[in-house]
């Protein structure tokens, strides 16, 4: 029996962009634009009438913009939202990530030129993102409090002392020297929930790879730094990682460490289908820091990071995977868990406290 197509509500105040995006999306038999709107208010009125599976919306629109629309949708009709925008080119690159904090799932860049040929090049990736989002479960979110993520209370590792969690951690043969984190779909919000609570005296560097569309990385870094006590930056080739700083792999390069512990940017082939790759980063970090490595694998589609966690395990490090219930997409953590190389499977909201316990950090 043929599955019905995924129903998309498309929202954009540019008639040209609406027309092009609708043509691209409708080119797939698996996806169909069932309605279009020129602003958030029109979209809100259409939602109960057309019952979309996914909403694709621009950010800046006359009338109700994408941020207000996202907040309204998440309080009334929780539906997966994909932001399609070129707003990262503007003065406030963190703008786009306010939508992710409000409940949108992912971001996708509009071609800057606006040319048909440039839109055509991104067609397959756009359709793939919509398909992934159609399978994501989202929950009603309240904005009565200051835009903090509202998560269910989940069963987890007992939240007492580190020794009660696992006495072997205290007897680990080397102190923790680095935390390395990988994430994909849903990752920006997950990274925010881990990084924002960490204290400024967090005693080791944090090294991250986030799968994100080209052009959005600087906005992610800017947004996270505005919400965190830690310094957050894109790792520069040749610099040494230092405590109290979060480093991100640059666009289109694997992030690694040389034999002296300096960052390097590698443009070798994609690993697990990605460049930058979480696996490539995990393997390189584990090779240098050995049993002093803590690996954290967050929400995302695919298997990137699983083999890298194996390298961390082989080096004697500690691996943490985000649990299924708190993941946007339980792909990457699931693959690592299946390999048998994960020490702890934790709800997202418990990862930052657990990292603090590993480090004995006083908040």
From TrEMBL:
The gene is cheB. It holds the Pfam family Response_reg. Involved in chemotaxis. Part of a chemotaxis signal transduction system that modulates chemotaxis in response to various stimuli. Catalyzes the demethylation of specific methylglutamate residues introduced into the chemoreceptors (methyl-accepting chemotaxis proteins or MCP) by CheR. Also mediates the irreversible deamidation of specific glutamine residues to glutamic acid. PANTHER family: PROTEIN-GLUTAMATE METHYLESTERASE/PROTEIN-GLUTAMINE GLUTAMINASE, PROTEIN-GLUTAMATE METHYLESTERASE_PROTEIN-GLUTAMINE GLUTAMINASE. The keyword Phosphoprotein applies. Residues 7-125 form the Response regulatory domain. GO terms for molecular function: phosphorelay response regulator activity; protein-glutamate methylesterase activity; protein-glutamine glutaminase activity. CDD domains: CheB_Rec, REC_CheB-like. HAMAP family: CheB_chemtxs. Contains a C-terminal catalytic domain, and an N-terminal region which modulates catalytic activity. One of its GO terms (cellular component) is cytoplasm. GO terms for biological process: chemotaxis. Residues 172-352 form the CheB-type methylesterase domain. It catalyses: L-glutaminyl-[protein] + H2O = L-glutamyl-[protein] + NH4(+); [protein]-L-glutamate 5-O-methyl ester + H2O = L-glutamyl-[protein] + methanol + H(+). InterPro entries: CheB-like, CheB_C, CheY-like_superfamily, Sig_transdc_resp-reg_Me-estase, Sig_transdc_resp-reg_receiver. NCBIfam families: PRK00742.1 (NF001965). It is found in: Cytoplasm. Phosphorylated by CheA. Phosphorylation of the N-terminal regulatory domain activates the methylesterase activity. This is Protein-glutamate methylesterase/protein-glutamine glutaminase. The modification 4-aspartylphosphate is found at residue 58. The keyword Cytoplasm applies. Keywords: Chemotaxis, Cytoplasm, Hydrolase, Phosphoprotein. The active site is at 184, 211, 304. Its EC number is 3.1.1.61, 3.5.1.44. The lineage of its organism: Bacteria, Bacillati, Cyanobacteriota, Cyanophyceae, Oscillatoriophycideae. Belongs to the CheB family.
């Amino acid at each position: 029996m043929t599955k019905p197509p995924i129903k998309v509500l498309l929202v954009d105040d540019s008639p040209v962009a609406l027309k092009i995006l609708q043509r691209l999306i409708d080119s797939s038999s698996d996806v169909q634009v069932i309605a279009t709107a020129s602003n958030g208010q029109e979209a809100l009125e259409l939602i109960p009438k057309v019952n979309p599976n996914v909403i694709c919306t621009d950010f800046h629109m006359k009338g109700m913009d994408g941020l207000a629309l996202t907040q309204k949708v998440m309080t009334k009709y929780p539906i997966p939202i994909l932001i399609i925008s070129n707003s990262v080119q503007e003065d406030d690159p963190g703008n786009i990530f306010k939508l992710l904090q409000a409940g949108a799932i992912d971001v996708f860049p509009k071609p800057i030129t606006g040319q048909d040929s440039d839109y055509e090049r991104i067609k397959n990736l756009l359709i793939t993102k919509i398909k992934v989002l159609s399978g994501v479960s989202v929950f009603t979110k309240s904005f009565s409090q200051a835009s903090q993520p509202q998560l269910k209370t989940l069963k987890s590792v007992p939240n007492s002392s580190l020794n009660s969690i696992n006495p072997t951690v205290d007897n680990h043969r080397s102190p923790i020297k680095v935390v390395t984190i990988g994430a994909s779909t849903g990752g920006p919000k997950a990274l925010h929930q881990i990084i924002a609570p960490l204290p400024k005296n967090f005693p080791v560097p944090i090294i991250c790879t986030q799968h994100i569309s080209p052009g959005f990385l600087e906005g992610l870094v800017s947004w996270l730094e505005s919400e965190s006590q830690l310094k957050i930056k894109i790792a520069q080739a040749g610099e040494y990682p230092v405590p109290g700083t979060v480093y991100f792999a640059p666009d289109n390069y694997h992030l690694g460490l040389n034999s002296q512990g300096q960052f390097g940017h590698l443009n070798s082939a994609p690993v697990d289908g990605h460049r930058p790759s979480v696996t490539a980063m995990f393997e390189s970090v584990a090779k240098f820091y050995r049993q002093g490595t803590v690996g954290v694998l967050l929400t995302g589609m695919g298997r990137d990071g699983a083999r890298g966690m194996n390298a961390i395990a082989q080096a004697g490090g500690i691996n943490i995977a985000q649990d299924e219930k708190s993941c946007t997409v339980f792909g990457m953590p699931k693959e690592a868990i299946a390999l048998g190389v994960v020490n702890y499977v934790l709800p997202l909201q418990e990862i930052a406290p657990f990292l603090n316990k590993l480090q004995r950090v006083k908040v």
